[in-house]
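Revision sheet: structure tokens.
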Amino acid sequence: MREGVLGVLLVVVLAAAGCTAAPSYGVDGDGVLSLSVPTPSYDETVQNTTGNVTVSEIVLHRDVEVACLLAAPADPRAGIVYAPGAGVKKEAHRDRAIEYAENGIAFLIVDVRGNGGATPGHPLDFDADFEVFEKGDWPQMYAVAADMIAAREVLVARCPGTPVHAMGASNGGRYAAMAAAADPAFAGYIGVSTSGFCRSGDRYAGDARRFLLSVDPSVSVASISPRPVTVFHAPDDPVIPFADGQALSDAAKEPKEFVPFNGTHGVNAEVDARVIAVCV
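Predicted:
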């Protein structure tokens, strides 16, 4: 393939053999969320290949069409499924994905539901999701975590044997924690400028308590062990207090690491360099 050529179309449709089961979730009495996510079929459109890195648009066929952006080297040493923060579209991290791919890491960005991108959904709304939960249907927060699990399955199908980490920034870090906790096939969790909700659901009773704990990374992060948990947070973060990031790390079990970094809110070059060094 000629380097740098845009518009080259490669359609890959994977119909997983025997994958007829519907996705499902469960929440136990302590608010621990479990997710069962069948491997989805998907389409892949190659946007361009430059050197060893191919950039593709991937659409996961789930209950909605979930758009993703993938930058991958020919033979990745690791993979990351990444959830951007609230209101941030996947395209905002295109250059970041390419940088990771140039360093041997396949980087797949999920276009989070409700972030204003190609994937349909509504902005984060706890009340709306709780109403859906009470009816026994899928809250959007669960669906986003399940999208990340489905994305991991696709990345592994494309790159067999590659360890894949769940990573996210700000609110995306919360979805990534939920996904990593519910899916033991993730190699670990990386959260940037994020936090849990300090078990605020314990102030309530019944279904409200179960639901609020089920979407609280302060609860789910402990289930990621023995896989590694790394939380990055800037002391000068103006959005999520530094102490809240520290509290999320404190709620995790070993092995874990809390890493202060120079910045404000969100992933930056310092975080990227550290993640790349650890993953490869």
